């Protein structure tokens, strides 16, 4: 902001000064009212790329008589709100320099300016000045210093400014850590990739494991070494035209691909794509991104148009971002390592987004989007711990919610360590010391157990209520709404596992107005990895012998599940929509074992013939004070279609259509009962694009106002924001007892 403000003040002939105070910008201006008005109009309507103005406070000051406008050194004031800038993809101007043979930065892999380059990943403290980043160890040469001090330069006050003479450098080593002599490491890597080699490449937020995406043998070798047999692999394409050869794109999807963040975008695959089947087996969508660093652009040439660019880790572990850790952990996965000497402080995966109903929808909030900031009218000193899967945390500070990047699954100890380190770093950056810690109700979650050991006031928020509150906070919804929450797992207040829920409520409270009918499942978390167990349980509840239906599963295993359900051994009741999808997928697509999260449901969506409009019969019981959607008629219809030889594509879409019809029917009944017209859709099952789009269309046709998570992930990555939003509202409505722990912390 400061160099932009300097140039604007100079253009409008204003005197004064500008400085960073914390992460806010303080400007003193002197000049005519007309010129000051023009300056403010420019600031509000044409901020610099990536600039985000949350509020402006204007105060009159005594006239001093500045003879010029200047940029002052930053201060570490904590009086004003702090914001942490996210990393930004290379801008068009820097890309021109990178490709210009006459430019001093030609082919320099760390070219950047005020508009682009690393930010959050290298920041030690705020304000964002070079001395507070890992670039502090690189002393600017005279040429870079001249650019930095020249108001007419694109790099005026560019904190990460550098060039080949004074900036970070690349080196190439083999899997034993032995340096290879190479005049141009990137040229060498490009040749290695064309030979089918696997290379670990250090980027902005950590390492990627990389191979030639057109080389099926290399892709399969990467899967074997990474221990990732089926999960789709992200592809980086050389440019937007290369993307169009492998996927269909809308104008909005292209805008997101080429935007400031350059995320992975989930796109529909072309049937004639040149990419091998092994990239995304059994799926109709592909995760694609464009080069977002100078180094990435340099990797491509006429012989190399597509690269697999997947997280630099072994399946289940956090991404590697330190050179020594990468060389140790990835030595059996990569043949070579392209490393550099700019330290990464904060690990960041690539963000994942999709476009739904013409709107950008973040599925994984990471590089370029994190930390995510949302204005929230709350002064509560809250830290929200998030969920166990797709972990993130959220801090409330001076009227804003700051949500961390995606941090993985907290079942892994290394991930837990990184989660806590990132949390402590965020506290330092925001200069906050939360007094209220908010967590999930599940007693077995790492985040819940961590919260129980803290001396702060503790508050547990029900999992699906947090999903609903996140959606409400993002869209500024107050008062009561109808919440439809579909996901896989969440501890309910009655001891069951919820996941097919209809709530009536606000950010601070809810009632459970409806749900999908309970089924008794057996085997704890094993049902997630073995969808056939879900199918066996649903069919057993209906009195149907599943042995002939699940014919790829050993009959003795099915018998064991049925016997343990009969005697209630290691069983639990579930209303989970995620488990219902698993059940149907096991029956229809024969997906009996999942090797990655939601594989069965994703594959079921992928085979759906979207031209089919039919749906199965279903029923909704008005049971006591709740509505209950049954599954028996739906499964009976599926089994009938299977028996008559209907294809999986037909049965899949017919099942999807039934879930949509039943959902809309249930919501209409709740509107009639409660008089509410605003709907929040949330939960990981709504990652299913067909389901979300069809329900949106159906509800809108009925006159509902429909909202869903867009900035915060609709999956468990958005739970921490919802926990923070719910807790902030509760603090407003009730008096909390400082220093108290447990369930009695709040007095109504």
Briefly summarize what is shown.
This protein has 748 residues and is of the alpha/beta class.
Task: Name some characteristics of this structure.
seven-stranded mixed sheet, DHBP synthase, 748 residues, alpha/beta, single chain, 32 strands, Alpha-Beta Plaits
SS class:
alpha/beta
Q: What average pLDDT do the residues reach?
A: 93
Provide the β-strand percentage band: 15-25%
Percentage of helical residues?
Answer: 25-40%
Number of helices: 22
Main sheet, how many strands, which sense, barrel?
Answer: 12 strands, mixed
Could you say how many structural domains there are in total? 5
> Using DSSP, what is the number of strands?
32
- First-last Cα distance: 45 Å
Low-pLDDT sequence parts: 735-748
Radius of gyration: 27 Å
| CATH architecture title of the largest domain | 2-Layer Sandwich
| CATH class group of the largest domain | Alpha Beta
Corresponding CATH superfamily of the largest domain: ATPase, nucleotide binding domain
Oligomer: single chain
């Amino acid at each position: 902001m400061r160099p932009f403000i300097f140039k604007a003040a100079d253009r409008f002939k204003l005197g004064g000064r500008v400085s960073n105070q914390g992460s806010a910008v303080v400007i003193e201006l002197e000049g005519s009212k007309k010129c000051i008005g023009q300056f403010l109009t420019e600031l509000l309507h044409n901020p610099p790329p990536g600039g985000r103005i949350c509020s402006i406070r204007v105060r009159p000051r005594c006239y001093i008589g500045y003879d010029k406008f200047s940029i002052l050194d930053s201060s570490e004031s904590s009086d004003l709100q702090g914001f942490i800038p996210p990393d930004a993809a290379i801008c068009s101007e820097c890309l021109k320099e990178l490709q210009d043979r006459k430019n001093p930065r030609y082919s320099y892999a760390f070219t950047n300016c005020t508009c682009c380059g690393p930010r959050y990943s290298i920041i030690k403290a705020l304000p964002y000045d070079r001395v507070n980043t890992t670039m502090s160890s690189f002393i600017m040469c005279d040429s870079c210093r001249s650019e930095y001090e020249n108001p007419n330069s694109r790099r005026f006050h560019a904190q990460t400014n550098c060039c080949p003479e004074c900036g970070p450098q690349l080196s190439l080593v083999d899997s034993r850590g032995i340096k290879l002599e190479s005049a141009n490491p990137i040229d060498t890597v490009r040749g290695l990739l064309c030979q089918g080699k696997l290379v670990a490449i250090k980027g902005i937020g950590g390492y990627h494991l990389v191979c030639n995406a057109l080389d099926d043998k290399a892709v399969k070798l990467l899967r074997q070494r990474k221990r990732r047999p089926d999960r789709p692999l992200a592809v980086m394409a050389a440019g937007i035209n290369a993307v169009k050869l492998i996927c269909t794109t809308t104008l909005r999807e292209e805008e997101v691909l080429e935007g400031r963040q350059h995320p992975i975008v989930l796109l529909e695959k072309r049937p004639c794509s040149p990419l091998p089947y092994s990239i995304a087996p059994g799926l109709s969508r592909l995760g694609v991104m464009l080069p977002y660093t100078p180094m990435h652009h340099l990797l491509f040439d006429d012989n190399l148009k597509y690269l697999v660019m997947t997280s630099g880790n072994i399946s289940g572990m956090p991404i590697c971002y330190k050179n020594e850790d990468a060389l140790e952990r990835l030595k059996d996965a990569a043949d070579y390592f392209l490393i550099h000497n700019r330290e990464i402080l904060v690990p960041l995966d690539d963000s994942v987004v999709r476009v739904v109903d013409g709107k950008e929808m973040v599925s994984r909030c990471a590089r370029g989007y994190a930390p995510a900031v949302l204005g929230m009218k709350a002064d509560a000193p809250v830290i929200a711990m998030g969920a166990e899967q797709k972990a993130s945390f959220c801090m409330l500070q001076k009227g804003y919610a700051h949500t961390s990047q995606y941090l993985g699954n907290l079942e892994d100890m290394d991930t837990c360590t990184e989660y806590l380190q990132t949390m402590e770093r965020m506290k330092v950056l925001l200069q906050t010391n939360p007094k209220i810690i908010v967590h999930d109700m599940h007693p077995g979650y790492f985040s819940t157990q961590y919260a129980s050991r803290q001396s702060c006031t503790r508050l547990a928020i029900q999992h699906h209520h947090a999903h609903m509150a996140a959606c409400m906070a993002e869209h500024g919804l107050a008062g009561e709404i109808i919440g439809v929450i579909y996901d896989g797992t969440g501890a309910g207040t009655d001891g069951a596992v919820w996941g097919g829920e209809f709530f009536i409520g606000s950010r601070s409270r809810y009632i459970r107005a409806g749900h999908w009918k309970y089924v008794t499942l057996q085997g704890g978390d094993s049902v997630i990895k073995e969808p056939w167990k879900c199918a066996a349980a649903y069919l057993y509840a209906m009195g149907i012998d599943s042995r002939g239906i699940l014919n790829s599963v050993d009959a003795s295993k099915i018998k064991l599940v049925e016997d343990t359900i009969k005697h209630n051994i290691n069983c639990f009741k579930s209303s989970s929509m995620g488990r219902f999808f698993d059940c149907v997928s096991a029956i229809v697509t024969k997906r009996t074992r999942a090797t990655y999260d939601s594989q069965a449901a994703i594959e079921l969506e992928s085979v759906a013939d979207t031209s089919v409009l039919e749906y199965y019969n279903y029923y909704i019981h008005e049971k006591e004070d709740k509505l209950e959607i049954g599954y028996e008629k739906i499964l009976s219809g599926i089994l009938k279609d299977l028996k008559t030889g209907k294809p999986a594509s037909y049965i899949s879409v017919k099942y999807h259509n039934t879930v949509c019809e039943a959902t809309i029917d249930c919501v209409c009944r709740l509107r009639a009962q409660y008089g509410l017209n605003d709907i929040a859709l949330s939960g990981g099952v709504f990652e299913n694009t067909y389901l979300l789009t069809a329900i949106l269309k159906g509800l809108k046709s009925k006159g509902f106002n429909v909202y869903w998570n867009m900035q915060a992930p609709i999956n468990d990555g958005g739970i921490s924001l919802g926990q923070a939003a719910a807790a902030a509202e509760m603090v407003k409505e009730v008096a909390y007892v400082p220093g108290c722990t447990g369930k009695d912390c709040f007095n109504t």
